[in-house]
Structure of FERM domain-containing protein:
Amino acid sequence: MPKELCLPNTARGDFPSYFLQSDSSIVPDYVEGLIIAPKDGKISADILDDIARLGAYLHLADVEERPACVTVKNVAELIPKTVYPIRTIDQWVERINAKLHAIQQHNINQTNARANFLEILEKCPYFGMTFFFVYNVIDENEQTGECLLAINKHGIKVININDREEILKIALTEIISTNRYSTQQGIFLDIKIGNQYRNKNITICTEQGIEISRLLGQYIYVDSENRAFITGIEQQELRS
């Protein structure tokens, strides 16, 4: 199921089971640097502070036995790869341990650590998106080359791999259909966007066309169900 459809309910205390889901990719995506990345090689002091705090919460939330403090051996598992080179290993260890010490003054347990981790991370624009590495995206005469395809309930974002800048945005409501096919040049997925009067194809060169098409189908189905539900309520209110 799409990530937004299975996000945990903090009131019910769902965070432990959510973090332990085998198909949950939020932490791997975060550490891989898909959710947070510097722009032009720079990142603000506030975000660096958040990253240190996120590292502390990740350390506390881990289900495995961890040492009391973060060390040079495990610090790389707590920091996004895209941000890690900005500071030295010792600087990251010092920053995260300082946050860890402050957090532990409040007797934070694993459940609260997981909740706080997600609470900070969900403010990031790419939080909750499913990412696909694709070889190329062709929009009429424009081509991206290798890039990231990010999908959520709002639609598709085509993102530059290096700086995470948005190249192209497609709203979910613009998507008409998808078509997967193969040629001698590779495997492609056509996404038809627009309306019945004016439309065009966005062509994606990818071996994950089935997964992308299926995920888009799930979001479109949920969106149509929600629209039908809202329409039904509005009609009922008009009759009452």
In short: Confidence is low (pLDDT under 50) at residues 4-23. The chain is about 35% helix and 20% strand.
